[in-house]
Amino acid sequence: MSENSENPSLINEDGALPGGSDYPSPRIAVLLGGRSGYFDFPTGWYSAAWRYLSETVIDLGGSMVLLASEETPGFVFDASAPETDQPPQMHIAWDQSKPELYRAHYEAVLAWGDGFVVTPDNMSMARDACDSGKPVFLTGGDLAKGRLFSFYRKLKQEGCLQPLDELKEWR
């Protein structure tokens, strides 16, 4: 996350998501990683994916929480700014000055989500989401290279990962 992000955290210091159970379902947790040797996290791609995701969650009548890692590029938060007064956009801006809280925030988001959207840069986040037994949707999988591409192909074959466009059909 960029250090100058002003998105307030929705998770308190003990890792709880206050009022999180009151958010409308489906509750979509978006798990964002960052650039790697196998995925560049292109700016234009993310902006288009965010617009699609926001519109889809609004159409589903659900809510959304965004959780970034330390490696998430700052432009992601600019692209993720709400364009509408209708909630589902609810951001978690992990405070990088308190790295000891990241794991609690991450676990709270995994527990909160009815389903997950993952970016193709972080195999650990994708595996954790799949291990939850809840639906997991991949955005940008076609942009992954090398071992990431092979990893996501395997998760799709296992049936625990779906392309983002199938989110519109999920209930």
Quickly list its features.
171 residues, 33% helix, 6-stranded parallel β-sheet, disordered N terminus, single chain, 6 strands, alpha/beta
Structure description:
The protein has five helices and six strands. Strands 3-2-1-4-5-6 form a six-stranded parallel sheet, sandwiched between helices. With 171 residues, it is an alpha/beta fold. The N terminus is likely disordered. The longest helix has 18 residues. The radius of gyration is 15 Å and the shape is globular.
User: What is the helix tally?
Assistant: 5
Approximate strand percentage? 5-15%
Low-confidence stretches: 1-8
* Biggest pleated sheet: 6 strands, parallel
- The overall pLDDT average reads 78
- DSSP E strands, number: 6
Helix-strand pattern: EHEHEHEHEHE
Radius of gyration: 15 Å
Please render the helix and strand layout as text.
Elements (H helix, E strand, L loop, with lengths): L26 E6 L10 H18 L2 E6 L6 H5 L9 E3 L10 H11 L2 E4 L4 H9 L4 E3 L7 H13 L3 E2 L8
Parallel strand pairs: 1-2, 1-4, 2-3, 4-5, 5-6
